Automatic annotation (TrEMBL):
Keyword terms, alphabetized: Hydrolase
Start and end residues of each AB hydrolase-1 domain: 41-158
GO MF term list: hydrolase activity
Annotated PANTHER family: EPOXIDE HYDROLASE (PTHR43329)
Designated name of the protein: Alpha/beta-hydrolase
The keyword Signal is annotated on this UniProt entry: no
Gene3D superfamilies assigned: alpha/beta hydrolase (3.40.50.1820)
Family as reported in the entry's similarity comment: Belongs to the AB hydrolase superfamily. Epoxide hydrolase family.
Top-rank lineage group of the source organism: Eukaryota
InterPro entries tied to this protein: AB_hydrolase_1, AB_hydrolase_fold, Epox_hydrolase-like
Higher taxonomy: Eukaryota, Fungi, Dikarya, Ascomycota, Pezizomycotina
Amino acid sequence: MASFPTLPLPEDIRQRHIDLTTEPTCGLNIFVLEAGDASHPLILLFHGYPELAYTWRKVLLPLASKGFHVVAPDSRGYGRTTGWDTSSYAHVDLSKFTQMQLILDNIALMRALGHEEAALVVGHDFGATAASACSLTRPDLFKAAVFVSHVPTGSAERGREDIHTALARRERPLMHYQWYNSTARAAEDWKNPSQGLKAFLRGYVHLKSHVWKGNEVDIGPLRAWIADQLARMPGYYIMPLGATMPEVVEADMKDEDTTLTESFLSDAELDVYVQEFTRTGFQGMLNWYRSATSPQNVNSQMAVFAGLNFQVPVTYIGGVADWGNYQRPGALEALQSGKTASDYRGTRILPGAGHWPQVELPNALCDEIVKFLAGQ
C-alpha cells in the first residue's frame, strides 16, 4: 500500500484511508479528511476539478463545531484514493467513471464510516454532480444537499442540440472546455504546461475567482444552449479552438497581479496541489469529463431517473463573480421554479467570491450551510 506524507493541516482534522478494496460495489482505498465526533450526524463534502479533499480544509472544523461528523474524500481518480483504473487514455474502462459509480462509492464510504445515512451532502463544482446523483436517487440515505458553484439539472438531461459545429464555425472558432478536457492531449497539457504547473494552477484559480475583473463582463444567465450565448463566457469555459487550457490561462494572466489570490490560497497551500498533481497526473480526474461527453453515453443508466425531481431539501450557493452559476442555461431557474426540486430552499449568492467560496469566503459559506440545515 502506498505511503503518503501527512498533509499540513490542524491536528483536529484527521487523515486516513478507508479500505473498500474488497467491497464489490466500490473497490477503492478512499483517502478522507474528517473532523468531529463520529457518533454525530454525517456531512459529506465532495470536491470539484481540479481539486482534492484538501479543498475543504477551511470548512471541516467550522461545520464539525456545529455538532456534525464531517468527512471529505478524495474522489475516484483523484489524489490519495487508490484502486481505480489507471489505464492509458485509449484503454481505460469509462464505465468505472459514471454517476452510478459515484453513488455506489459514496454509499460504501458512508457505511464504512459507521453511518446509515448522511444528514447532508455538499458538492462543489464536479462534486455537485456527486451530491446531485446521491440525493436524487437515494433520498432515503442522503437527506439534504447543497450545490456550490455548479448547478445540477436534477435527473438525466434530455438530448440537447449539438453546438460544437456552430462554435467551431464562428468568425473566431471556439470549443467548449468540457470537450477539450475529454481529448487525448488534455492530461499532458494540464500536467506539463509551458509556464510550469504552479504558475498555471495559480493563474487558473485567479481567473475563476473574484479577483479577475474579466468575470464581470456580461455575466448573467444564458438564454439557451446555443453558440451565440455560450460564447459570452470567459475563455476558461469557451476556449479558442485549438488552444490548450494552459495557453488560455497564460494569455489572460499576461497583465494580472499573481499575488492577489494569495490572501485565500497561500504558496504553501498551492504547493500541496502541485505535489499531489505531479504525482498522480490528471488523466484519472479527466476521465470524468470523458464519461460525461462520451458518444457511447456511459451514463445511460441514469436515464432511469429521467424526469425525477429532488425530493430532499436542496439549496444552491455561488459566488457573485462565478460563471459557474450560469453555464448550464436554465438550470438555476429550474431549481428556483420548482421544476427540478420539490423543496428548494433558495439561491444564496456570496459577494466577494468567485468559483471557490470554500477558500475565498469559507466562513460565509459555512454560515449559509448552517442556516440551510436550520431551515432558514
